[in-house]
Amino acid sequence: MALHATSEALWTQGLHHLTLVGAGRDVSIDFWSGLLGMPLVHEEPNEDNPAESHLHFDPGDSRMITIFANEDRERNSARTSTETGAVHHIALSVSAESLAKIEARLDERGIAHSGRRHRGFTESIYFEDPLGMLIELARYSFAVPDGYTVADVMIAAHHVRASEGARSIEPAHVTAAVNRLSAQWTELPAALWNDRLEARVAGLGPATR
Predict the structure, then answer these.
(1) How far is it, in rounded angstroms, from Cα 89 to Cα 96?
(2) PROSITE patterns annotated for this entry (predicted)?
(3) C-alpha dihedral over 202, 204, 205, 209, to 10 degrees?
(4) CA–CA distance, 128 with 197 (Å, rounded to integer)
């Protein structure tokens, strides 16, 4: 699998915000603040539909999750669309401590969930919001070596996985990647690095642009 970007690519700086079509105001606040602990930091009318409230929640990194709340929309247990072009699910980063507590909180509220799942490099749990959007709470199951990023570890783990012909990244691949990065591994083939990461190939140092 080639990882690359063209020289004409725009450089994004991260997610600015994410807006969802929500249920009523109180239902939305109860889910995003009451269940998930996100503070409601701003509320105003939806500029495109003044009959709706536009709620801004801070998920923990100040990159807002905003909700268009409308009292005419009620809870709906039906799963949101997974057709082409639809959002499949939203994954939110949590600590190991929070992930350990969420099952009990979901059970207390009668919210169905997947139970905790381990998938090679992540541990997570899945459940749905009041209107059927699939939500994932996730944490990476590795510590990032000093001077590197999660992306560095993932790229290195991908190289290990590919070199072994494995179908997906397994815990052993992540462990090998972390160990090699920690030892200043400099043998990653350039084909694995896109234009954004080329500055790191020679010494696998911190990201630059």
Answers:
(1) 21
(2) VOC (PS51819)
(3) 70
(4) 35
Amino acid in position 195: D
What is the distance between the alpha carbons of residues 7 and 16, in angstroms, rounded to a whole number? 23
DSSP-H helix ranges across 14-137: 25-29, 96-108
Name the token pair of 179. 């160990």
Backbone angles phi, psi at 154, to 5 degrees: -65, -40
Q: Cβ atoms within 10 A of the Cβ of 139, count? A: 15
- Angle of helix 150-164 relative to helix 171-182, nearest 10 degrees, comes to 120
Identify which of 56, 39, 137 has the alpha carbon closest to the alpha carbon of residue 95.
137
Q: What is the pLDDT along the chain (209 residues), one digit of tens a residue?
A: 455 555 566 678 889 999 999 989 999 999 999 999 999 999 999 999 989 999 999 999 999 999 999 998 877 777 888 888 888 999 999 999 999 999 999 999 999 999 999 988 999 999 999 989 999 999 999 999 988 899 989 989 999 999 999 999 999 999 999 998 888 755 554 444 453 455 444 444 444 43
Residue 125 tokens read as 């749990």
The model's pTM is 0.79
